[in-house]
């Protein structure tokens, strides 16, 4: 067993050992948690970096698409501007020719001169031509076969409807611009073949794509839908060749897969493809993830990719950084724990010294207290006996005081019950005295007066018997009627209430039988009615009333409620109203024992419940048994 002399050592060592063990368990738990977090963060980091790289790939392809579309728009804008400039020049020339010669030549001659002048104009590199259309939309010039007069005619008709410009995809794709030459009744226009400009633009875009670089070694390549290689910065010797039979190290036809995935990408811009391909200037194939997309206007498959090994290197570097950070954190925790142990050990040493001093002082006080306790124990029995005797004396005094209070109430009630009979007896004697003075006191009058006096005295005697029976304690529990017990209480209180001009209203909801002491129960009801009477008289209430309701509560228990219109009980007294010597009456008229004894009778002797509350008119006391 532990000995008291070892207490200082225990106090000194307990915090240190606790800190050591706690640090060990916390570090073990922390390291395991950090390792698990490291694994989770590594996995999340790998997914994040891979997702970022994929986003970069799709972003780069989107930039390529945007670049192509921008230059396509620029090419078309330049073509439109050039067409307009050509037509404006010819239009101005025709207007000047007409202004100089219209008074000398006929319209037919002027038209011939315009056609002759127009025939001398040519578009360089055979990229386009000039044309004239009459009011019916027929092509007047040139007369020779252009290869697709239907396409030109439909394009001119559309241009004249839409404000001058139109594009025709019939035959060779072309762009036209038409402007009315009113003095001649014609419209003059110019056309340019789009395939030549588009081919030149494609060549520029291929050169640009081959020079494009991003990130660390990122590049772009282009195939058409027929698997022909159009652009690749590291396979210049294969440009223009069919790559349909090209396989990776696993044997899958990767170019066919690129074309298929890109053209079937649906609503998305492109699709990701995993395969094995050698890095530039290396021979060994490595896993690669490419993003391929279909550029529909030119029927091109544009792709770019990353090598998984490059991503893994980045992930490995990030993991090393995270691991180093975790190691530094753990080292910091261990250093803090070490210094904490030193500080706790020093504090434990100081506390141990103080505890030793306190223990010595404590031992001395304990010895003194032990001696005092022995002396106290020697006199304790006599003190306890004295206290018990004093308690019994107080209880007897309390009961005596309660009995005296009940006796006073009883005498007051008897006085009210006897007041009227005594008055009537006094009247009989006065009548006899008057008759005797006037000589009319015959035997018949005396006998009649004696009979009336005897009736009144018998009533007064029965009143004494009623009160004696009412206040006689019940010895055994019996089944009795709550209504009958209440009626006995009301009978005794009737004269007192009548003398105070208080009306009593009793409402019976049902006849209830309960097990208990009927006399004590009736005394409690009487006490509640008389308390209500005292409150009404003391507060001088106009039209004083007392209501009594007899019935059942929600639990099928008997319920008797007595309430008045005296204004209620002070809320400060409500919590202590049933305690001894607490009274709502004036100090000279209340003992504070009536409600205390009533609660003891109902709750201790009859296992019921007596409680009070205030309602809108006054106080309400309820008995549940």
Task: Please provide a written account of the structure.
This protein is of the alpha+beta class and 625 residues long. Among the domains are: 213-298, Beta-Lactamase, CATH 3.30.450; 475-624, Histidine kinase-like ATPase, C-terminal domain (Heat Shock Protein 90, 2-Layer Sandwich). 58% of the residues lie in helices and 17% in strands. It contains eleven helices and 17 strands. The protein has helices at 7-101, 107-119, 149-161, 194-211, 254-263, 308-437, 443-470, 482-499, 518-538, 571-574, 594-605; strands spanning 128-133, 139-141, 165-168, 174-181, 186-193, 220-224, 229-231, 270-278, 285-295, 300-307, 478-481, 503-508, 513-516, 545-552, 558-564, 609-614, 619-624. The chain has a five-stranded antiparallel sheet with strand order 2-1-5-4-3. It has a five-stranded antiparallel sheet with strand order 7-6-10-9-8. Strands 12-14-15-17-16 form a five-stranded mixed sheet. Strand 14 and strand 15 form a beta hairpin. The longest helix is centred in the middle third of the chain and has 130 residues, at 308-437. It is elongated, with a radius of gyration of 61 Å. The model has no long low-confidence stretch (mean pLDDT 83).
In short:
The chain has 625 residues and is α+β, with helices and mostly antiparallel strands. Helix content is 58%, strand content 17%.
């Amino acid at each position: 067993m532990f000995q008291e002399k070892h207490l200082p050592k225990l106090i000194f060592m307990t915090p240190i050992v606790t800190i050591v063990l706690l640090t060990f368990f916390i570090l073990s738990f922390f390291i395991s948690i950090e390792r698990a977090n490291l694994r989770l963060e590594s996995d999340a980091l790998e997914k994040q970096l891979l997702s970022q790289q994929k986003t970069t790939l799709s972003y780069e392809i989107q930039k390529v698409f945007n670049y192509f579309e921008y230059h396509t728009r620029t090419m078309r804008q330049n073509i439109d501007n050039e067409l307009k400039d050509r037509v404006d020049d010819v239009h101005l020339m025709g207007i000047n020719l007409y202004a100089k010669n219209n008074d000398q030549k006929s319209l037919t001659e002027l038209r011939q001169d315009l056609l002759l002048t127009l025939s001398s104009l040519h578009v360089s590199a055979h990229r386009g031509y000039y044309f004239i259309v009459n009011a019916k939309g027929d092509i007047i010039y040139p007369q020779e076969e252009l290869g697709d007069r239907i396409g030109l005619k439909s394009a001119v008709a559309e241009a004249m409807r839409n404000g001058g410009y139109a594009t025709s995809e019939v035959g060779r794709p072309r762009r036209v611009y038409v402007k009315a030459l009113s003095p001649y009744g014609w419209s003059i226009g110019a056309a340019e073949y789009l395939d030549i400009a588009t081919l030149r633009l494609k060549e520029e875009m291929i050169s640009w794509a081959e020079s494009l670089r991003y990130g660390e070694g990122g590049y772009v390549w282009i195939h058409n839908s027929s698997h022909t290689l159009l652009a690749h910065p590291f396979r210049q010797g294969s440009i223009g060749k069919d790559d349909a039979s090209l396989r990776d190290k696993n044997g899958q036809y990767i170019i066919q897969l690129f074309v298929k995935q890109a053209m079937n990408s649906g609503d998305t811009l492109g699709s990701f493809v995993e395969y094995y391909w050698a890095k530039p200037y290396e021979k060994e194939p490595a896993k690669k993830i490419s993003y391929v997309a279909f550029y529909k206007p030119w029927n091109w498959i544009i792709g770019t990719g990353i090598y998984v090994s490059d991503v893994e290197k980045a992930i490995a570097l990030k993991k090393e950084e995270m691991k180093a950070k975790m190691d530094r954190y753990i080292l910091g925790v261990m250093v803090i724990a070490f210094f904490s142990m030193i500080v706790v050990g020093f504090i434990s040493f100081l506390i141990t010294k103080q505890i030793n001093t306190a223990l010595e002082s404590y031992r001395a006080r304990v010895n003194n207290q032990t001696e005092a306790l022995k002396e106290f124990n020697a006199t304790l029995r006599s003190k306890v006996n004295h206290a018990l005797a004093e308690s019994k004396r107080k209880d007897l005094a309390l009961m005596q005081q309660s009995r005296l209070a009940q006796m006073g109430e009883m005498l007051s009630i008897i006085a009210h019950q006897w007041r009227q009979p005594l008055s009537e007896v006094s009247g009989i004697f006065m009548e006899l005295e008057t008759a005797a003075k006037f000589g009319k006191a015959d035997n018949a009058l005396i006998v009649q007066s004696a009979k009336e006096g005897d009736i009144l005295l018998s009533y007064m005697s029965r009143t004494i018997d009623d009160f004696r029976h009412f206040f006689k304690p019940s010895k055994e529990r019996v089944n009795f009627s709550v209504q009958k017990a209440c009626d006995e209480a009301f009978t005794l209180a009737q004269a007192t209430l009548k003398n105070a001009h208080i009306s009593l209203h009793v409402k019976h909801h049902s006849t209830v039988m309960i097990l208990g002491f009927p006399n004590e129960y009736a005394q409690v009801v009487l006490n509640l009615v008389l308390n209500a009477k005292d409150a009404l008289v003391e507060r001088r209430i106009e039209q004083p009333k007392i209501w009594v309701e007899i019935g059942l509560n929600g639990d099928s228990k008997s319920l008797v409620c007595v309430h008045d219109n005296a204004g209620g009980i002070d809320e400060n007294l409500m919590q202590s109203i049933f305690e001894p010597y607490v009274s709502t009456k004036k100090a000279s008229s209340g003992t504070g024992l009536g409600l205390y004894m009533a609660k003891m009778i109902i709750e201790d002797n009859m296992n019921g419940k007596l409680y009070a509350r205030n309602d809108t008119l006054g106080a309400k006391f309820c008995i549940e048994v």
